[in-house]
Amino acid sequence: MNVKNNKTLRNVIIFSLVALSCGWIGRLVDLQARTDENGSLGQLIWIVSPLLMMVILRSWMGDGWKDFGIKPRVKGNVFLYIFSLLFFPFMTMVIVGISSSLGWTDMSPMSSHYLTAVVLALVPSLIKNIFEEFAWRGYLAPKLYSLGYHRVVVHIAVGLIWGVWHFPYLFLFVETTESMITYIPRMMLGVIVMAVLYGEILLMTRSVWPAVFMHMAGNAFIDTLILKKFVLVQAEFSYLAMPSPEGILAIVLTALAGLWMYKRRKRASLRQSPPGFPKQPQFPV
């Protein structure tokens, strides 16, 4: 491994340690302040710290900005942008349709207000996911790709770190009576298959923005549906019918989409990559 790769690996380790610790520091701050409400100081530390670490590493610790993927690169990628915006809303409708027809879920009488609630959630979700995706797909994924690891290994590594990052605040947003022995592994699997899907789109577009919009749409449609109780999933079927990452139907549909994108990218003709990203032949297939 050359000096540049040693430096990149060192910085990736630093970033990962900060990402995995900042949420617990935030929880400690919240416990000291005796608050667990949305928008707490601890949650701000949790959300902002990975992005701040990315800025430090790129600006002052030698990582640079060439592989940040800040340019939208919409030209030639319109389909991928549309897919990114619509996949999670479509997946949610499919899961709710299947589970409702099988009697696994009950619709709230307030469901007619669901779209209004989604629209109101879009802007906060966009802002939150600029912070999140600029860190995960804007830093961690491209840096691991640049080290020459197989892209599936990178997807899994990003998914594992991203999933564990959620742990400190996970149960403020999740209501479940299920044992963590079964819940956590399934949730982690769901996050990993999302990392595959996000990562493949990142590699095809060479831009972080599809991931931002995909995450925005997913949070706005899925979190609003669950947290605002527009749909009530029967406890005995929650492991199947939840449209969130831990639901088996969601895992299967996301995995199929990720596999499709993986194969689609392999079939795509090789093309010159923009500055900052390795040319496709340098990525193992």
UniProtKB/TrEMBL annotation:
Transmembrane parts of this sequence: 12-29, 41-57, 78-102, 152-174, 180-201, 247-262
Pfam families named among the record's database cross-references: Rce1-like (PF02517)
Domain CAAX prenyl protease 2/Lysostaphin resistance protein A-like: 117-221
Molecular function via GO: metallopeptidase activity
Keywords: Hydrolase, Membrane, Metalloprotease, Protease, Transmembrane, Transmembrane helix
PROSITE patterns recorded: PROKAR_LIPOPROTEIN
Protein name: CPBP family intramembrane metalloprotease
Organism annotation: Paenibacillus phytorum
